[in-house]
Amino acid sequence: TWKWVVGPMFLYLCERLVRFWRSQQKVVITKVVIHPFKTIELQMMKKGFKMEVGQYIFVKCPVVSKLEWHPFTLTSAPEEDYFSIHVRIVGDWTEGLFNACGCDKQEFQEAWKLPKIAVDGPFGTASEDVFHYETVMLVGAGIGVTPFASVLKSVWYKYCHDATNLKLKKIYFYWLCRDTHAFEWFADLLQSLEVQMQERNNAEFLSYNIYLTGWDESQATHFAVHHEEEKDVITGLKQKTLYGRPNWENEFKTIASQHPGSRIGVFLCGPEALADTLNKQSISNSEADPRGVHFIFNKENF
Fold first, then answer.
1. What cofactor does this protein call for (predicted)?
2. What angle do CA 254, 259, 262 make, to 5 degrees?
3. Which residues partner with 265 through β-bridges?
4. Which of 139, 142, 219, 244 has the fewest CB atoms within 10 Å, i.e. is most exposed?
C-alpha cells in the first residue's frame, strides 16, 4: 500500500511547494476600475507572467483571508501589457476585496494603499483552441461570458495586426443571461468591437446574439415600446436583445448550411445541462462524410 500512497503524496507536496513559491512572487495592482452593479476590474502585472486566451488564475488576498484561494477567469488579452480579472461582489470574500481596494470610498485611492495580492497560474482551458478553426461558435451563459472577453479582445488585436495570417474568419457568439445589467462591462466591449468592425468594413466577421432569459411584465412592456429604436434599449448595441432561449437545432443547421465542408469549433462556458444539449447538437449536425461539415465541441463547466 505504501508504494501506491508515496507517489501521489510526493506529487501533491511538490504541487503545494510550487503554489507557495508562486504566491510569494510580487504582483502589482496597476488599476482598479469600478463597473456598474458592484463589479470591479483588477488590472495587474507580474514578472514573467504569460497567458493564453480563456485561461484562469487563483487569487489570494491576505488582507481578506490568509488561506482562501479563489479562481477567476482572465478577461485581458495576451497582447495587452497587463492581465485583468472582473470580480462580481456576491459574497463575504469578494465584499472584503471590494473594501480592501478602497472601492467603498468616494475619494481617490493611492496606489500604495492597495492590498497585496497573490496569484497562482494561469491554468489552461478549452478556449485556448479557438484559433485552430476558421469558424467558431462561442456560447457563454451568465458569468460564463468572461472567458470570451479575453478571446474577443485577442481576436481583435490579431485582426488589426495581421488579418491575412489569422485563420479564424467567422465568429458566432451567443450570450445567455438572466440580467444583462450585471455584465454591462461586457456589453461595452461588444459595442466597441461592433464600431471598430464597421469602421473596417468587416461587420460580418462577428455575429452575436444576446438572449435575456429572465424579465418581468413591466420590463417586457418597456422593451416592446422601444423595440423600433435603432439601438437596443438594454445593451445600447445595434443587435437587438432576444428573449427566451435559442433554438439550438435551428442555429446549428443554419451555420452548417453557411459553412459546408468546414470544421466548426463549438466552445461553451456554462452549466452542465447546456453542455449536454450542445454536445448532442454537435454530434447530430456533423456529417458522416469526412469532407462534410463537422462540429467539434469543447466545454468549460461551472
1. FAD
2. 130
3. 136, 296
4. 244
